[in-house]
Amino acid sequence: MIKGKPISVSLSPNTQKDDVLLALKMIFNPREWQKGKTVKELEESFKKYLGVQYAFSFNSGRSSLEAILRALEIKSGDEVLMQAFTCNAAVNPILKVGAKPVFVDIDSTLNLSLEDLKKKITPRSKAVMVQHTFGWPADMAEIKDFCQQNKLFLIEDCAHSLGARYDNKLCGVFGDAAFFSFGRDKIISSVYGGMATTSNPGIAKKIGEFYASIDCPSSAWTLQQLLHPVLMNYLVLPFYDCLKAGKAFLSFFINTGILSKAVTKNEGKGILPGYFPKRMPNALAVLAQNQFKKLKQFNSHRQNIAKIYTEKLANSEKFILPFTVKNGQDKLPIFMKYPVLAANPKALTEKFRKANIYINDGWSGSPIVPPLTRLEIFGYKKGSCPKAEEVAKKIINLPTHINVPEEKANLITKILIDL
Ligand SMILES: Cc1ncc(COP(=O)(O)O)c(C=O)c1O
């Protein structure tokens, strides 16, 4: 049993003491919430790190993707090929610009299957959007060739993969444009935030025009996000397992609008909230920039924890580990989470819960997560991506973030093996 703060896959996982203090400081500095120098600094950090020519910050991955789609002039009648086993947040911007998402099945690493991609292309296909699921790089050489041969735009969804490498190059540099997320449970986190990147001057010009046409989010929205690390750290997490008080606090804060939800209920019906698309407010850029400085430390920690899971679980016949597939030397994953396929995910989740470990992150139960997503609204036909549907039934995700010490990773493997 883990006393005190729980280990969780998705409840403010990357937040450390310095992040909480920084958020607290920003709360008392409202003059810097909207405009300030850190937005540009964060964009410069990204350009330098990725080695790309242009970076535009937005208030989410969702806003960043909308900017890219509009810059590529993807519109009504166009099809965007993308993998199933994705989040509705990655699909909604496609619906918003009037295009049709076409879902492609996944391979054994939970990424886009090239074989199925070849079957799903039509004369209306305009772009392929590649997701590097949970930080495992997709087969970029083959996918890029396919896009070039078929004159399709290539968009990289790097919401999970900041710092992952393919062929010794960082994910995000292979396509026409890429976007990143700084959502609360992503690689680095400012509760909400995102970045669109490209090295193509024409695309950059159009993203810039879109950026100029939108505003910063409201001060109330910005404050709501600044409160998140503070309230999670002082009121929610310390009491999460104490007569469920922390959990009740969290529900209260969300229901009263004091804290935001990562994905709203309406998004499951294809309706994006009015606070997208917006620019990245300076206050959240300050949080993101602080986390960005810790990126290498975060990712090498994730890789170490993943190594423990692989070593301890690889010989167990009870589980399939998608991220142990031998794939040559060309991939350096960063394990945003560590997926395990099991016959009894519900029983495992419950057993973890009793040990104050929360592995339910919403990434299960549906080929488009979270599970209440209305598949028919998203144009997903049941049975069209059988592997994604199968994975959704069996998956649990183990935490790898900086707040999971090695001894807890060992305990997690023990719980799994003993069940
Ligand atoms: C695969 C994937 N793509 C895109 C997004 C959208 O990112 P954001 O939450 O920053 O809008 C998310 C997360 O919600 C995601 O998991």
How would you summarize the topology of this molecule?
Elements: E1 7-8, H1 17-27, H2 38-50, E2 54-58, H3 61-71, E3 79-83, E4 86-87, H4 88-96, E5 100-104, H5 114-120, E6 125-131, H6 140-150, E7 153-157, E8 165-166, E9 169-170, E10 177-181, E11 194-198, H7 201-213, H8 219-236, H9 245-255, H10 282-292, H11 295-313, E12 331-332, E13 337-341, H12 345-354, E14 357-358, E15 368-369, H13 386-394, E16 395-399, H14 406-418
Parallel strand pairs: 1-14, 3-5, 3-6, 4-15, 6-7, 7-10
Antiparallel strand pairs: 2-11, 8-9, 8-12, 10-11, 13-16
The structure holds pyridoxal-5'-phosphate.
Describe the structure in brief.
This protein is α/β, with parallel strands linked by helices and 419 residues long.
Largest sheet: 7 strands, mixed
Q: Count all strands and give the number.
A: 16
* Strand and helix order: EHHEHEEHEHEHEEEEEHHHHHEEHEEHEH
Mean pLDDT: 96
Classify the helix fraction into a percent range. 25-40%
- Shape category: globular
